[in-house]
Amino acid sequence: MTVKTSPVGKPLDRVDGPMKVQGQAKYAGEFPLPGLLYGHIVNSTIARGRILHIDTRAAEAVPGIEAVLTHENRPPIASYDKPYEDDDAADGSPFRPLFNDRILYNSQPIALVVGESLELARYAASLIKVEYQTEEHATDLLTNLDQMSTAPADLPGPRGDAKQALNNAAVKVEVQYTTPVEHHNPMEPHASTVHYLPDGTLEVYDKTQGVQNCMRYLEDVFDMEGQIRILTPFVGGAFGSGLRPQHQLPLAVMAALKLKRSVRVSFARQQMFTFGYRPRSIQRLTMGASSDGQLQAIYHQAIAQTSRFEDYTEQQVEWSGMLYKCPNVTLDYQLVPLDVYTPLDMRAPGGTIGVYALECAMDELAYAANIDPVELRQKNFTDFNANEGKPYSSKALLECYEQGAERFGWSKRTMAPRSMQDGHQLIGWGMATGMWEAMQMPASAKACIDATGKLIVSSATTDIGTGTYTVMTQIAAEAMGFPMDQVEFKLGDSNMAKAPLQGGSFTVSSVGSAVQKACQELRMKLLDTVQQTPASPFSGKTPDEIDFADGWLFIKDAPEQRVKLTDIAAETGALEVEASVEPGEVRDGYATGTHSAVFVEVKVDEDTGMVKVSRVVSAVAAGRVVNPKTASNQIMGGVVWGVSQALHEETQMDHNLGRFMNHSLAEYHIPVQADIGDIDVIFVEEHDEIVNALGSKGVGEIGIVGVAAAVSNAIFHATGKRVRDLPVTLDKLM
Amino acid sequence: MSSTKDHSGVTTVATYPIAIEINGKPQQLDVHPWTTLLDLLREQIGLTGTKKGCDHGQCGACTVLLNGKRINSCLTIAVMHDGASLTTVEGLASGDDLHPMQAAFVKHDAFQCGYCTPGQLCSAVGMTAEGRAETSDELREHMSGNLCRCGAYPNILSAIEEAMPATREQLERDKGVSR
Ligand code: FES
Ligand code: FES
User: Fold this and answer.
1) CA distances (Å), origin A657, targets A59, A248, A496, A660
2) What CATH topology corresponds to B2-91?
3) Fewer CB within 10 Å of terminal CB in chain B, N or C?
4) Distance from C-alpha of A537 to C-alpha of A547, rounded to nearest angstrom
5) Ligand 2 centroid from CA B121, angstroms
6) Could you tell me if the CB of B150 is within 6 A of ligand 2?
7) Beta carbons of A646 and A708 less than 8 angstroms apart
């Protein structure tokens, strides 16, 4: 008998890979249904005011158009805020599509044209005439700072006396950074395909990061409890855009209910700019240190935009109170409400902006104190989270610095800016620390043995490209003691066992823990069942003394003593276990986080100012890595996002119109293949028995955090110029 | 030219017949004059493997091989392609055997969400046929019409580098067959 090795920790190929490369993975807008109708959304062209009149006659007269829905003729929807509050809702009064004549932001959905084909609906939509009563709008964060008020965030109170300590500090840095609006822009535009069933209930294929979130939302908004099922087998990227139900979903449902037909509504790419986004922000930092670089004080204020109807908050400034050892810290977070849509969590929400500012300021401090940037960070390392007053469950950040610097060749760096030229190319080496939380949410999973003896495990989570199908299969296989090909993991169905939203890097820790527990319990139950038979050779055996192979359950020391799994299942009916896991109490005494050290080389053309990120080393401490292949892909993707944040991405608004201007993939820049150089990912060893039963912290966000700072710092090192406004485009380097 | 009837039975919109070979299968189709090749594939004949990321020729998700050359199927009108031969992602594999490019994409984890993947694959095969890119930098340049928001670019590059020789051989063999 061969010794079984656990699939956890192995760089296995994705279980859904073959489907994806053959075009067999079906996304929300791709399910064919008999008699399917297509909806096209009409968007407002003003930022604030009222619809006085909406003339839909010409559109309705087009042959093949079934309906034009507006606030005047839509089916009934809830009027209070509560039903619209989803699991990721911000404080306030959520947007209610087609609710009334009010225009709250430019490009707000105001009508849905439904017809027999996509082209017809889009054409008919162009015939709709809208008369508005326009009110004055304000959309510019920078010119509306007098409107700011304290964000409803749970910030830690001031620690020590930052003001006093700053006055006394030998070295001081006082800086301001600005970051732009960014849009998620997953490659798959949001879509919902609503299947109208004969009994009037709905099955909806939706692009979402939370099938049960969307189910509850629809149940509440349309008063249809128990009549909605959401299905999401594949998601073509989301990065946060699917954390809240987006308006194509209720609009498609309205049309389906009105016409008693199946309806699909997909966003055009331009419409991917008509809902949530990363908020524009101003970050003000003042830092003081002793002459040898020991941090004495940090003051960090963030000012960010939100909508007039919700107060969107994220963790922008907390990082400055927890990443380093610093006795005096004051944090402040202000919001400016504007006539725009509410911002939305976008990959590493808050951290992406706040840590960018903190880590650029740390670089400025390193130069002010003339200390190597890595050394400065090592000097201020702490394994204690002073915001929470708790030690970290683990924090292998020093190892990240060490191994990252070694791989990158940091020791060959010369400190002075512009000191590493190569002909016309200015070479710059920069680095930054990254950090994200290691959260865990309550989750459940179901495990059963099917009629063929295969282990089927399921939970209502999703796979947004992170590798959920694969890593859950690995976790289940390990916990059960099954080979990978005898395990199938199912997800993306609101009828499955309860799962949290897929976001925040907590899917492995939350759903993974539930999967592990369900399989361990099923293993027990199988043993228990065979022990019931009289004179069972299994009686008295513990779960550790049994094993599975090729559909048999046997005793490890006596493999001839075996029983076929299908026989057990046939005799006892389905063998099924559902398990739930809550975050463990042991976590309460600790702070938990993932950390990274990012090293970046840029080459800047001296004449044109063109910046190329030629190589990146990202050393990450994220606990136990379930699948190094998919995990390093996550980190690489995060790095690409960080490079994008640093050099490319920015949604620009025409404030006269209050409307985004560059709402296409030609004008909203994200990196292409030629923009990306070598990316080297290191996972440092980190053992953590506190964070969760798997010891795994999640890797979806940590890859991006710190990258934009490392790139900016490298650009300073190359050019001697500090650009404190993202993205760092050519014009700013001239 | 023929006509279709709308739901009320009124004859309104003309369609045009085209003969087109899709993944080796000859097809007779009636298409509206405004239908793009992409919408023909996705909406009319249910081949949803080819993706729509922008509908404006800006992302490459809709890349297919038209008479062996890579094109953005969202930028061309179906009715123009009477007599053409088309390969989509669904037609790359031979039966259960993945195309070398597909196998390399799985091996190198050259995707996350998979939405850009069909376009990347067709583009990579088309690029190999063009025979103009050799070095890593050239490959990066020649694959820059295909966006990947997940940022799987380094793995996409490794996969293509590995699969190019076998892809070239396969292209040669196919040429031999069609001669
Ligand atoms: S869908 Fe054709 S290029 Fe984007
Ligand atoms: S794999 Fe998601 S866009 Fe490329």
Assistant:
1) 26, 24, 45, 9
2) Ubiquitin-like (UB roll) (3.10.20)
3) C
4) 14
5) 12
6) yes
7) yes
Domain A17-24+441-582 and domain A37-136+187-238+242-273 have a common topology: no
Distance B144 CA to ligand 1 centre (A): 13
What percent of chain B stands above pLDDT 70?
Answer: 91
Q: Note the pLDDT tens digit of each residue in B60-77.
A: 999 999 999 999 999 999
CATH class as words, domain A17-24+441-582: alpha beta
Encode pLDDT of A334-356 as tens digits. 999 999 999 999 999 999 999 99
Contact with chain B for residue A234, Cβ under 8 A: yes
> What is d(CA A697, CA A590) in angstroms, rounded to the nearest whole number?
14
- Residues A201-227 pLDDT 10s: 999 999 999 999 999 999 999 999 999
CATH 1.10.150.120 in chain B is located at 100-178
Question: CB contact, 8 Å: B107 with chain A?
Answer: yes
Give which of A195, A330, A165 is closest to A263, Cα–Cα: A195
Interchain CB distance below 8 Å, B154 and A64: no
In angstroms, rounded to a whole number, what is the distance separating the alpha carbons of residues B5 and A727?
Answer: 53
Q: What are phi and psi of A286, to 5 degrees?
A: -125, 130
Tell me what ipTM this predicted complex has: 0.97
Q: What pLDDT score was predicted for residue B4?
A: 47
Predicted pLDDT at B3: 45
Tell me the C-alpha distance between A719 and A609, whole Å.
9
Substitution target from A20, A462, A614 for chain B, most B beta carbons within 10 A: A20
Residue A71 pLDDT greater than 50, yes or no: yes
Is the separation of the CB atoms in A193 and A255 below 8 Å?
Answer: no
Fold held by A281-439+588-733:
Aldehyde Oxidoreductase; domain 4 (3.30.365)
| Cα of B147 from ligand 2 centre, angstroms | 8
- The pLDDT-based confidence of B12 (bands split at 50, 70, 90) is low
Ligand nearest to the CA of B51: 1
Please list the residue range(s) of chain B that carry CATH number 3.10.20.30: 2-91
- Are the CB atoms for A612 and A578 separated by under 8 Å? no
**Does B122 sit in the ligand 1 pocket, CB within 6 Å?**
no
Q: Tell me which amino acid residue A326 is.
A: C
Q: Which atom of ligand 1 is nearest to the CA of B51?
A: 1
Asked if the C-beta of A188 comes within 8 angstroms of chain B's C-beta atoms, the answer is yes
Say if strands B63-66 and B85-87 run parallel, antiparallel, or are unpaired. antiparallel
Instruction: Give the B window 51-80 contacts with A, CB below 8 Å.
Output: 51-56, 58-59, 61
For the stretch A521-530, pLDDT in tens is 999 999 998 9
Sign of CA dihedral A13, A18, A21, A26: negative
* Per-domain residue ranges of chain A: 17-24+441-582, 37-136+187-238+242-273, 281-439+588-733
Q: Which ligand is nearest to the CA of A185?
A: 2
Question: How far does the centroid of ligand 1 lie from the alpha carbon of residue A255, in Å?
Answer: 27
A469 touches chain B (CB under 8 A): no
Q: Would you call A701 a catalytic residue per the annotation? A: yes
Q: What pTM was estimated for this model as a whole? A: 0.97
What residues in B contact A66, CB-CB < 8 Å? 7
Fold of A37-136+187-238+242-273: Aldehyde Oxidoreductase; domain 3 (3.90.1170)
Contact B92, A22 (CB under 8 A): yes
Among candidate residues B54, B51, B71, B36, the one with its CA nearest the CA of residue B116: B51
CA B75 to ligand 1: nearest atom: 2
pLDDT of residue A636: 98
Say how far apart CA A503 and CA A239 lie, in whole Å: 8
Average pLDDT over residues A516-545: 90
What CATH number is given for B100-178 in this structure?
Answer: 1.10.150.120
pLDDT band at A571 (very low <50, low <70, confident <90, very high): confident
Number of the ligand closest to the Cα of B59: 1
